[in-house]
Write a structure and sequence with these properties.
The chain has 70 residues and is of the alpha+beta class. It has one domain. The chain has three helices and three strands; from the N terminus they run E-H-H-E-E-H. The chain has a three-stranded antiparallel β-sheet. A hairpin with a 2-residue loop joins strand 2 and strand 3. The termini are far apart.
Length: 70
């Protein structure tokens, strides 16, 4: 599914893959940073730019599709 995307994506590229808006994707990255990594969309810094690793998208989608434990 994600084989054709680069190993590290900009917020805009990740938003396109996730079919979300750029603002929502950025908001999810801010949530991850503010929550200490407990929720949101993980990213790494390359200088002053956020990049979303391809592997993170796999985990993010899998976690979204998995129902919460009862």
């Amino acid at each position: 599914m994600f084989d054709d995307v680069p190993p590290f994506m900009t917020i805009e590229q990740a938003a396109k893959v996730l079919q979300l808006g750029r603002s929502k994707t950025y908001e999810l990255s801010v949530e991850w940073e503010r929550s200490g990594g407990t929720s949101g969309l993980p990213f790494v810094w390359f200088g002053h730019q956020k990049r979303i690793p391809r592997a993170v998208l796999h985990r993010f989608v899998d976690a979204t599709l998995t129902p919460p434990a009862a």
